[in-house]
Write a structure and sequence with these properties.
CATH architecture: Up-down Bundle
Strand order of the largest sheet: 1-2
Oligomer: single chain
Structural class: mainly alpha
CATH superfamily: Rhomboid-like
Shape: globular
Number of strands: 2
Strand content: under 5%
Helix content: over 70%
Number of domains: 1
Distance between the termini: 84 Å
Order of helices and strands: HHHHHHHHEEHHH
Number of helices: 11
Length: 218
């Protein structure tokens, strides 16, 4: 059993391993400290608009590091391994973590703008994971994926299916505003990828006019 676990951990890409380990450790720490009535970790990291507007800006990223429930940890962990691993095979660990940070902060700002005074907090890596799915659909749209029992889907089709399920489930359990906030992580991801592609394009060569050449021609 220990050998299987070691092989699983070693198969993870560095950025995925870091995120998955952080989510797991913070979730377990929150559970233990809450059980012992020592501290409430979620109270330090969860995001509400009023807290951000009062200067607690670390919550714009901190909320995405703590899964709210064990179910969220398991589901988001599986999606992280699948989609985050695919991205990190063409990106670096730094690229993956920066992308996740940008999308988490973007969704946090959307939460603050839509619900500046609401007491319902935002906690969990849902917006970040949604952004990872969107990036895979953007970068590998035609890559085929096999789902049990023998269903073949392209990456774009799989992401669209998962995105629809995620949006409807979030809207059902938490409301439409929460669903829009989750989806906004993907919107921030698309904007980031677009800006990144634009900055990576080589600048068009400009003709250089030399005064010396002009004098020779005259």
């Amino acid at each position: 059993m220990q050998g299987l676990w070691q092989r699983f951990v070693q198969s993870l890409t560095p950025g995925v391993r870091w995120l998955l380990g952080t989510w797991t450790l913070l979730y377990l720490l929150a559970v233990v400290l809450r059980f012992l009535h020592v501290a409430d970790v979620s109270g330090w990291l969860m995001l509400t608009g009023s807290q951000v507007l009062h200067g607690q800006v670390w919550r714009l990223a901190g909320y995405a590091l703590l899964p709210g429930t064990l179910w969220e940890l398991v589901v988001c962990g599986m999606l992280l391994v699948m989609f985050g691993g695919a991205l990190e095979r063409v990106w670096t660990r730094r690229d993956l973590l920066i992308y996740g940070l940008v999308c988490a902060v973007g969704a946090g700002l959307v939460k603050t703008a839509l619900q500046p005074g609401a007491s319902l907090p935002l906690v969990g890596p849902g917006p970040m994971v949604f952004a990872l799915m969107v990036a895979c659909a953007r970068l590998f749209p035609h890559q085929t994926m096999m789902l049990p029992p023998s269903i073949e889907l392209t990456m774009r089709q799989l992401v669209l299916l998962l995105a629809a399920v995620t949006f409807l489930a979030t809207a059902w359990f938490s409301g439409w505003i929460s669903a829009l906030i989750t989806v906004s992580g993907g919107g921030c991801g698309l904007a980031y990828l677009w800006l990144r592609s634009k900055s990576a394009q080589p600048r068009a060569a400009r003709p250089v006019v030399s005064r010396r050449i002009n004098r020779l021609e005259l």
